[in-house]
Amino acid sequence: MTNRITELFNIKYPIIQGGMVWCSGWELASAVSNAGGLGLLGAGSMHPEVLQDHIRKTKRNTQMPFGVNVPLLYPEIDRIMQILIEEKVPIVFTSAGNPKTWTKHLQDNGIIVAHVIANTKFALKCQKAGVDAIVAEGFEAGGHNGREETTTMCLIPQISEAITVPLIAAGGIASGKAMAAAMALGADGVQVGSRFAASKESSGHEAFKQMIVEAKEGDTKLSLKKLVPTRLLNNEFYQKVRDYEIKGASVEEFKELLGRGRAKNGMFMGDLAEGELEIGQVSAMINKVETAKEIIDDMISDFISTVASIKTLSFK
Amino acid sequence: MTNRITELFNIKYPIIQGGMVWCSGWELASAVSNAGGLGLLGAGSMHPEVLQDHIRKTKRNTQMPFGVNVPLLYPEIDRIMQILIEEKVPIVFTSAGNPKTWTKHLQDNGIIVAHVIANTKFALKCQKAGVDAIVAEGFEAGGHNGREETTTMCLIPQISEAITVPLIAAGGIASGKAMAAAMALGADGVQVGSRFAASKESSGHEAFKQMIVEAKEGDTKLSLKKLVPTRLLNNEFYQKVRDYEIKGASVEEFKELLGRGRAKNGMFMGDLAEGELEIGQVSAMINKVETAKEIIDDMISDFISTVASIKTLSFK
Lengths: 316, 316
Fold this sequence. Notes:
By secondary structure, chain A is α/β, with parallel strands linked by helices. Chain A is built from 14 helices and eleven strands.
């Protein structure tokens, strides 16, 4: 398979592993890249020196292209950018910030830049900033999300019509069927988060992975809308958030409830009751812990048979 | 094109026009059926004698199969069912109620029955009740919606894996691209609401149709969750609902705010400020008022070219 995304990143399959907090370290990123996708380190949960260590380990463990996802609101952002350039990271996905700030600087240093958005307005801003690709993330995605609540089904065709740069669909994609659907909607590639969060190589806590595997329909909800809309998995912390939402709690009350370190405590340390567990709606369809290679191979074989079955839908 | 849905309903294209309150009378249903889709009358906003009149007019205006959508919580449900049988309506879509109650009775009278659901639990209940087809409606759909907030991208593959009866996808579908995506996800057909609500033959108020055409990304939100989750278009009434949600208003306060007749006042009478305007998220992509035939022809031609472009995504 060759298209604009495989050519841009020089990868075999147009499958990008989302750079997630607490789940995507060097083991996952290198395994995904070795399996033919694009592995991303999630800088959002790493101190600069930890990130540097993960970049070096990724380089030792794969000869294939890999990347780093960087939330631009990160406090030590200048140091992070310096490391990415010094370490000659080939690809950077930026998110949660203005794409104008860093895109040109990274590109001037030979780095391919993609930026993550959730609406057409920001997609156009990204294109104007000269990004090489855009990730459009739908309402069903895990973790931080857009305020418009536009689903992948509605978002991808709108962004696809508005922009000319390569488009990666995210949100609700964990199978070859969803990958084929995203491409029918106008995407050139897909970003997969939740299924890789539950993978063998994920650095997420084993108990968190098990909880993803057991998650059922309706077990995630877009929550914390008065702070940053975040899709959470149902647990005791989530129940408290929901009670606050029902009673109309204030921004300050939400901030106090959330506190600090809950995401790490939940996803990395395994505090399933009180941790902040970020995962996508598609977790309801994830039923086992697999290796990154098993996930990619399964998605590709499912994609091939889905495309073949769509071909039979012709007119008589 | 022939598949389980075209064969079940004896229609040319697997496109069903959603039976919507205040928008889908005999003019729309007969126009859709004449154009090769399945037109549905929306009984939810019709008194029994009005429905009977619309059924008769539909029969006079099309020789093709058509149907009626009936919310089972309708107060005069027994009278409605009697009319459907007396008038020999060939197809009935039931919703908002228990599929066990009426399915067999309708089928015993020669009627094909589909039921609308938004989660796997109810899909299985439908199958057990013996329905001929299931409509699975995602979070992005307009009007009343499920509590799980599962999007079409996540819902369709789950339902498709769980059931064996033909599956119709609804929510976010207004183009051939989305139709191809829905079929990749496992659907046999699609139900289209919003685009037909804005069609020339829709009985919705012209000002409402114009507002759908002008709707932008983020202009609809799933609202009134303390009553029945309902996707509303942004207007003055919606702003009040939103303020109530932010302050955590009670069920009683929401009921008082909603009052009675707001849906009719908005969608049928054209009170764009204070009316309850129910429409899907995909309204952001609907940019003109067209005839039902133009909509179906455009969807089919878009579907054909989308399927053709997916075919080029093969492996080298």
